[in-house]
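ESCALATION

Customer reports they have been waiting on this structure for their group meeting. Please prioritize. Original submission:
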Amino acid sequence: MSSLAMQGRPLFLHYCAACHGVTGDGDGYNAEQLEKEPAELSNEKFIGKKKDSQIYRVIKFGGLGVKKSHLMPVFGHTLSEEEIWSLVAYVRYLAEDDDHPVTVPADVSKTRPASLPLAHDSVESFSEWFLKNGTDSTLISKGEKLFRKKKSCYACHQLDDEGGVVGPDLSRAGFYYTPEWIFRWIGNPQKVKPESRMPNLGLNNEECRAITAFLVSLQEPEFNKKWQGYLDSPGDAVQGEKIFFDAEGKANCGKCHAVNDRGGKVGPPLSFVGTSRTKAFLLESILKPKAVITSGYSSVLILTKKGKFITGIKLNEDDSSVDLIDKEGTSLHILKNDIKRFKTQKISIMPGNFKDILTEEEIRHLLAYLATLKIQN
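Update from on-call: job pushed to the front of the queue and completed.
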C-alpha cells in the first residue's frame, strides 16, 4: 500500500465504510438501508474505468454534484484536498488497481475548510426568527424535501423505520433536540464535534432554517402524562450535581457519564446536554433509558469460542478485532478469531429503575443540574 493510500485508510473507515464496507465490497452495515446500492469500490473493472479526477469529484461534491445519487454526501466542506486525494488512492488500493497510481497535484491544500462559505444566523437571531416562523407549513415542507431528496440526510438517519442507521433516528427529533442545537449542528457539525462522522454539507442559512423547522415538527405524539409532574416545578441544580456525582448515592450518574472531563466514559458525555436536549427528553432518558439509545452507545453481546459472554459498548472495530468498554469502565480488546457470536442489543446498559429508587424531588434536582450544562462560547 502506498503512503498516500495509507493516509486515506482511516478516513475511509471513519466516513465511508458504513455504506461501502470495510473492504469496499458495498456491504457496509448501512448498505441494506439504502434505496440504491453503494458502489462496489473493490471491483477492479469498475474502478479501472474511472479517472482519478472522477473519483475525486464524487467525493468532494457528492452524488448530486456529479449528477449521481443524492445519498452520497458532500465531503469537500469537511476534508482537505489532500485528504480527498488520499481517499482516491485508497479506493484504487481496494480495487487492486495498480495500473493507475495516484499522484497528488502540487498545488492542493493540506488544510481542512475552516468555515462555511455562507454566513449563518447567530443563535440569538435564529431563536428570534424561529419563534415567529418555525411552524410555517411551507417552510417545513421545503425542509422535508431537502432532508429526504437533496442533502444526503436520509442516507444516514431514519424517519419512521426508513433511512440509514449511521446517525441517530430522527423520527422524534423535535422531542429530542432544541431548535437552536439542530440549527447549529446541521450548519457545521465539526464545529461542535470535530470527530463527527457527519460531513459538513455546505448548507446555506435558508436551508438550515428549513431543515430545522422540519425536524422540530417531528414531535413525541404521546409523552407520558404521568411524568408531567417532574416538569411542573423546578429543582435545585446544586443538589442535582451532588446526586449526579455521589459515588455512594442511589444514582451515581458520574460513574458512566462525564461532565467536562469529570466522570466515566461508558455513556455519552453530558457536558453540553442542556444546550442540545429538551428537558422532556432528558426526563424520558432518566425514567425510560431504553426508549432512545444514543447513536454509538448500543451495547453488544459477544460469545467467545471458550463459552464466555461479554457485554459492553463498542468503541472501535477493524478487520481483526473489536474494542469494548464494559459497564465498569474497563477497556476490552477482543480478537475476532476468538468470537463465536456477536450481536448488537436493543437495550441500554443504563439502569432502568431510577423512577423507583429516586424520589420525584431528586429527579427534578437532576433535571435542573443537567439543564445548566451548556456550551459557554
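Sent to customer with the following note: The beta strands are 158-159, 162-163, 258-259, 262-263, 299-304, 309-317, 321-325, 331-335, 339-344.
Escalation resolved.
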